Amino acid sequence: xxxxxxxxxxxxxxxxxxxxxxxxxxxxxxxxxxxxxxxxxxxxxxxxxxxxxxxxxxxxxxxxxxxxxxxxxxxxxxxxxxxxxxxxxxxxxxxxxxxxxxxxxxxxxxxxxxxxxxxxxxxxxxxxxxxxxxxxxxxxxxxxxxxxxxxxxxxxxxxxxxxxxxxxxxxxxxxxxxxxxxxxxxxxxxxxxxxxxxxxxxxxxxxxxxxxxxxxxxxxxxxxxxxxxxxxxxxxxxxxxxxxxxxxxxxxxxxxxxxxxxxxxxxxxxxxxxxxxxxxxxxxxxxxxxxxxxxxxxxxxxxxxxxxxxxxxxxxxxxxxx
Length: 322
Ligand SMILES: Nc1nc2c(c(=O)[nH]1)N[C@H]1C(S)=C(S)[C@@H](COP(=O)(O)O)O[C@H]1N2
Ligand SMILES: [Mo]
What we know:
Shape: globular
Bound molecules: the ligand Nc1nc2c(c(=O)[nH]1)N[C@H]1C(S)=C(S)[C@@H](COP(=O)(O)O)O[C@H]1N2, molybdenum atom
Helix content: 10-25%
Low-confidence stretches: 1-42
Mean pLDDT: 86
């Protein structure tokens, strides 16, 4: 077995998030034959893990302020239905994504900040600390999940960066290595690297969460290891995966999807059941693991937390397309 350096967040499995939280916790234990799970240094080889999946257990205390009124999406469903175009433009990229080397990983913070830096992901995690939050996750393709993310508030990273007066937006960038992600090579017509952006004010909202783990482990490669975003009030494409850079800027970033199809993917992209996407109605959504259709809520159910960010916007259509 590989000997790995113990990190602050690695603790024994028995102390990890309470039993019964993850519907398939017991299945994972059974699938792994409990080997390597007893100690903090074991890698987690779940029944559903793809070959090459070596995620470490990650303990984080749940922040009870972020609750769900739906059951969690089982981990195996989440691990096997992903959008990550760097590995192909279909949902079954899990296996191909295992070639992603999420350690070591450097994250750069630059642009209009007082403290530009390049920092190792595990140093960043130690600095920021971690917690667990249960979030909804809604793709513009009108399917939804519910995920137990582990990470830290985006606001903490903003505070560390020290934005200067002119910094209005944050532009984020995914790794761009065609020798790792074959989709980059086989789909040269896409405007790589994947880019996303939001306002500094949005990043400072309590809901904006930078994810380093899920389901009690390091976040899986196919879900955007080792660092991704979760913006649960916006459509999923805003939640950029495998981030290498945060640039603070006075210019509104143009995202990957906006470059491709501005009419369909605009900057704000707030979940809104009243504004249909040109190809998908957004009035309802399909709960991924049950297949059930349920009504979609304004801001994906997070209106109370985020509506004030958009109080100056009269036209609700504006919130999706412009
Ligand atoms: N780098 C990168 N980030 C990305 C994507 C992508 O293709 N590449 N897809 C986005 C889309 S469309 C969605 S719905 C979510 C999917 O996250 P999930 O696979 O964890 O459900 O990731 C987003 N982040
Ligand atoms: Mo999506």
